[in-house]
Structures are given as structure tokens and as C-alpha cells.
Amino acid sequence: MHTNHKEEIDDIEEVSTPAETFEIHKVIVDKGQESLRIDKFLTARLPNISRTRIYHAAKMGMVKVNDLPVEVNYKIKPLDIITVFYTRPPANTELIAEDLPLNIAYEDNDVLLVNKAAGMTVHPGVATRSGTLVNALAFRYANLPNIANGEGRPGLVHRIDKYTTGLLVIAKNEKAMASLQKQFFFHTIQRKYWALVWGDFTEDQGTINANIGRNPSDPVTMIAMQDDTFGKTAITHYKVIERFHYVTLIECQLETGRTHQIRAHMRYAGHPLFNDETYGGASVLKGTTFSKYKQFVENCFSICSRQALHAKSLGFKHPATGEEVFFESELPDDMRLVLEKWRKYVNATIDGELLGN
User: Fold this and answer.
1) Is residue 296 exposed (0-12), middle (13-18) or buried (19+ Cβ within 10 Å)?
2) Is the pTM higher than 0.85?
3) N or C: which end of the chain has fewer CB within 10 A?
């Protein structure tokens, strides 16, 4: 049994005027996008904007495609550059400080390492104003720095998905923020994830180099393609840690940091993450057809009711000392218990055959 997790993506470019009375959204249509009315397309891509607001913006000439005003019945085409400009009430950017439990792995005067739990969103969004990591940080720290246009995200220089566990680094002052931002921009941060994925690998290690962009048929997911005109460059290096015949524990090292990068790349490679419902990993993809095996997998899904992905380690130059520092975190209980079950499963043989065959 597994849960239905709603994904949240908010990496659409957004710019606001200082008075917070107008808002501009800029969206570039993906190369593979099918023809669709622009109001329907924008409603899907900008979920916090209703079709009514888009309609009124278009009537005022504030919906433009390639710098020319269009009507709401305009059919979008691949690579169209859409700009939406409309009035809005002042945004509620007040950050709610909450005394929430945090697993702090390391802290000094400049940086904070948090081992994020599964189910905790990193920062507030349109639908989530409380219960996030940032809400917890606001309770503990009064003056964390903020990136430009980063209201509601003090201290953050990167993030991981809501149901992914593991290490995040938080900047505690402006100098640390600038240093860490620069390291992320130039891809010098060392980030390694452990993931349990479906299937076995013919090689012990490899690299996936495929651009990642928003899925044209499902705007809340990302998709990987071997197409230089699609999305953004994304590179994931992986190596096998442990094989379980039907699933494999791998380590992924990110060279880039795209939204859902590991999840989209592994699906592209034919190895969706174990119990990743959004990316096709929440059903029996490899193994036998026998009911005993199916029940075993369902039991594993019940133990780890999310994508089996953990941000295992993080390395960077310390903003104050310039020293290379490296941090590691233990696997969370749900992933650890599932791995133990798979080890017992592959070691349990009947007449030399895997249990369930």
C-alpha cells in the first residue's frame, strides 16, 4: 500500500514590481508541447492563476506571445515565449515561525546542515504556508539572509523534494549565502544521493546526460530527453552499491541540479525509483508474477511509502575558512528496513531458486 503524493514545482520565472501591485510571468513553451489554447495552457502551468484572471489580462492586452498581444483562444506553438502581466493584491509573504522538530547534523556561525525528514516541504508556497523547513528555521533564527526575490526562503541555497530525505545546507549570513550560491552555480558542490531503483544494471557505473524540462503532457512532472533544444542540460553520474536482482541500490552524484533530476533521469534510463508514484515506480516493474512476490513488494511499499531517495552526503568549501568540508547522513529507517527485507528476500532460496519463483 502506498500514498498518493502531490508534487509541487515552483521554478517558473516570476518577477514582481517593488510595490507588489503587478506580477509578470514568463513561460517558454517546450519543443514537444501539443497545440493548446493559451488560457488552458497557462492555467496548468501557473496553478495559482485562474482562467478568469488570464481572460481579463488578455482583454487588456497583457498576455503576449513573442512580444505581441494575443486573445485567450490563441493556440500555443512549440518554443513560443509567453508573457503574462496582471494586477494582483499584495502578496502575503509573512513567514510564520513554528517550533517544529529539526534534525541538525552540524552547525557553526556560518552554516547549518539539516537532515530533512520525509514529508517536510522545504519552503512555503502558494498552497503551503506552514509546516515547512523554513518555518522551523524562522523560529530558531531571527536574521537568516535571503536571496534576491526569495521572499519566504531565508537561508536557502538549494532544496530537495518533499518526500526525499537527507542533507540540506543553510546559509546563516550574507557571506555564507554568497559563497554557497557561487559554488552551486559553478557546480562545485559535491552532492551524492542513494536511491533504490527498479531493475538491474549491466554496468557497475555510468553517466546519464539528457536534458530535463517540464513534461508537455503533465506540467507537474519533469521529463528527460536526448534533445539539445529541450529543457536544460542535466548530468547524473551513478554507481551500483548493492544488487537485489529485481531492484538495485545506487549512488547518484549530481553534476547539475535540475528539478526532480534523479527521478526523471532514472525513469529515462528505464530504472524508476522504487515506489515513486509520480515517475512510474509504484508498481511491480521487475520480478515474478506470483502473488507471494507481489505481496512482498506491497509490504515494502508500506514500509517506505515514498520514493526511495536520500540525500546521503554534501561537500563544499566552507564559506569562512575555505576548507573543503564533507558531511554524511545515515539512511532513514524506512529505506534501511526495505533494504533489509530485500537482502533477506534474495538470500532466501528454495531449491536454489528465488523465493516466489
Assistant:
1) buried
2) no
3) N
